[in-house]
Amino acid sequence: MKQTLASSWGFFKRALDRWEQTAAVVPSSRFLSRALTRHAELRRAAVVVELGAGTGNVTRAILREMRADSRLIAIEIDASLAEQVRATLVDPRLEVICGSAADLPQILAAAGVRSPVDVVISGLGMSMLAPAVREAVVDGVRSVLADAGIFVLFGYVHARALVWSRRGGFSRFNVRGFLAERFGSLEREVITLNLPPAAVYTCRRSLRASPPPAAGSAAAG
Ligand SMILES: C[S@@+](CC[C@H](N)C(=O)[O-])C[C@H]1O[C@@H](n2cnc3c(N)ncnc32)[C@H](O)[C@@H]1O
To answer: 59: phi > 0 → left, psi -120 to 50 → alpha, else beta; which?
Structure first.
């Protein structure tokens, strides 16, 4: 409990310091973390990538759900947050890399991870990223994701109406529209028990094939 409070306080101070990068005043709630891992179908994944690990709340939830023989690469741009996750989550399946999610393909290659990867889970504040970084992140995800791979991320609900950044002042960002242009299949679940409330998006390259018809159903036509 003491450690959770200390790490949340550290995250809050980071947010004051680097608002565009941190994009939230507290780490993701357990409700949001669970939704991200539930949609990622982690039991099927051999290689999982997390973007923007922060203080490790989502990382911890991923480790809880993923297989014992799978590998998790967590990428975090802030060196001290990356170090905090390394120190608190000691697990042979986890590798924490300090770098930018915009360089995802290069980071994975340098870490000896052969694409394609099965699951990418993003904790990045998409609405706050510079547009060029946002594009690079999603292009990178699309280039490393397996054909049947899943990209799960969240968008803060208020961002569609209003976001504020030191860089761009007031603006708005429609994450759903942004993703719909880049992925063939998109599902959405709103998680109100998070500060701020967020929507979880599950993206696939293409529409999921419909299950084969049950035996004998063809005649019903
Ligand atoms: C909204 S916070 C979420 C943190 C954590 N995943 C959680 O859910 O509590 C966004 C995190 O992404 C990190 N971040 C921002 N831009 C990044 C980038 N280009 N590459 C990797 N991490 C980035 C920030 O430092 C911050 O830790």
So the answer is: alpha
